[in-house]
Design brief:
Strands 3-2-4-1-5-6 form a 6-stranded mixed β-sheet, sandwiched between helices. The termini are far apart. It has 168 residues and is an alpha/beta fold. The protein is built from 6 helices and 6 strands; from the N terminus they run βαβαβααβααββ. The longest helix is centred in the first third of the chain and has 16 residues. The relative contact order is 0.23. Helix 2 links the parallel strand 2 and strand 3. The protein is 36% helix and 21% strand.
């Protein structure tokens, strides 16, 4: 069984020289650390982390890793994930080596929410599914399980087993 964690970056400032350069707010940093602590409490230990190369996403990863006591070097920063649509994001996950069992993806809405909705088979945790139906705000984290090769991951083939919106 494989684990896929999909997270939206934490709260970011509203303006910067470019959207790509937007930084996390103080609350965003705290929420990301809280998300990492929650993931560690769930027993999640990633083998690989795929992060949008936008500043707010890389800062979210650094804070999540701090909160979970994870190794920062697990991350691959992907410029394409910044502007990726749902199908491109899915293709990035499908490209993960099948020797890896737990993947964390940190990206942007609407793509990350859409990806969770696309993958969800509706057979996971009812409470998590109900919470997820309310939206995917900043610092939201969905944990999915999947039984198969990453390269074969497709629509409605993963179960949402946990959902959390980190607020410090």
């Amino acid at each position: 069984m494989r684990t896929l964690v999909i997270m939206r970056h934490a709260k970011a400032e509203t303006s910067a020289p470019t959207d790509y350069e937007r930084q996390l707010t103080e609350r965003g940093h705290a929420d990301a650390v809280a998300a990492g602590a929650w993931l560690a409490e769930q027993g999640v230990v990633p083998d690989y982390v795929l992060v949008s190369a936008a500043d707010r996403a890389t800062q979210t990863w650094e804070d999540v890793a701090l909160g979970a006591s994870w190794d920062l070097t697990l991350a691959e920063y992907d410029q394409g994930l910044y502007a990726a649509g749902t199908s491109t994001a899915l293709d990035l996950v499908r490209g993960v080596d099948d020797g890896i069992s737990t993947v964390v993806v940190i990206g942007h809405n609407p793509t990350v929410f859409s990806l969770v909705q696309l993958l969800d088979d509706g057979e996971g945790d009812d409470e998590a599914g109900n919470e997820l139906a309310l939206g995917f705000p900043t610092a939201a984290v969905a944990v999915l399980t999947y039984d198969g090769d990453w390269s074969e991951l497709d629509e409605a083939e993963a179960s949402v087993t946990a959902f959390h919106v980190a607020r410090a």
